[in-house]
Write a structure and sequence with these properties.
Strand order of the largest sheet: 1-5-4
Number of helices: 5
Shape: elongated
CATH class: Alpha Beta
Number of domains: 1
CATH architecture: Roll
Order of helices and strands: EHEEHHEEHH
Length: 162
């Protein structure tokens, strides 16, 4: 199974000049959690997530319309290609602990988005007689790797309480 068989085509995107109000409206209207950021030549130069927008707005004393995507701390875009095997894309997601990948052509231009939502919808249970191209086990194994913590979490401890 290829990425092109599973991905969502016609993805929504933004540019570094898009303001955060517009970016949030795109995320809301298309019910997605990531926007690829395209340069002037239509190439993917990064991604911005709903979380990125929230944290940027929560740490600045400015209106969403006054902050551009270019001012958000950059997030590297981990990508895949339409002709990639779906398992290669799942390995990329697991390695980089992401649930969404922009799908780009050989020129780096956006062709789609591959999300774990897309993968889940296309997965099949293992049958005793045959193994599906994309199994529920493939999905669960990837999700486990995505959600594994990669560094210890330090919890705040109130030492003043006795």
């Amino acid at each position: 199974m290829k990425v092109k068989d599973v991905m969502t085509g016609s993805p929504v995107y933004c540019t570094p000049n898009t303001n955060l109000g517009e970016a949030a409206a795109l995320l809301w209207s298309r019910d997605c959690g990531i926007l690829p950021v395209l340069d002037g030549n239509g190439r993917v130069v990064g991604v911005v997530t709903d979380r990125d927008l929230f944290l940027t707005l929560g740490t600045r004393n400015r209106l969403a319309g006054d902050i551009t995507v270019g001012e958000v701390p950059p997030t590297k875009a981990h990508v895949c290609a339409p002709q990639d095997d779906i398992h290669v894309a799942l390995e990329t997601m697991a390695r980089h602990k992401v649930r969404r990948l922009p799908v780009v052509n050989t020129q780096g231009r956006l062709e789609g988005i591959l999300s774990m939502d897309d993968v889940v919808v296309h997965a099949s249970p293992r049958a005793s007689a045959r193994t599906p191209e994309l199994s529920h086990d493939d999905v669960m194994n990837t999700l486990k790797k995505v959600y594994e913590t990669h560094s210890p979490v330090v919890m705040y401890r109130n030492t003043a309480a006795a």
